[in-house]
Design goal:
Structural class: mainly alpha
Shape: elongated
Strand content: under 5%
Distance between the termini: 33 Å
Order of helices and strands: HH
Number of strands: 0
Number of domains: 1
Length: 70
């Protein structure tokens, strides 16, 4: 779905201002490659926060606490 929205936005940009659309098409791979380290950082932060959450809830799990939704 994101790809379709991106394509439609690019088509509208191509109709309105084709040099900017051409520049955007050329720069998109560069921006994507530059965003890879930030995606990796987001995965690492998510994993660390999940570990902290698990450690914080460990005593409750050992004592047998069950939430109301389970």
């Amino acid at each position: 779905m994101k790809l379709l929205i991106l394509f439609v936005a690019w088509c509208i940009l191509a109709v309105l201002c084709w040099p900017v659309a051409l520049l955007a098409a050329l720069l998109l791979p560069v921006v994507w490659v530059m965003s890879i380290p930030f995606r990796f950082l987001a995965v690492v932060v998510h994993a660390v926060l999940a570990l902290v959450k698990t450690l914080l809830f460990l005593p409750a799990r050992i004592l047998g606490y069950r939430s109301a939704t389970n």
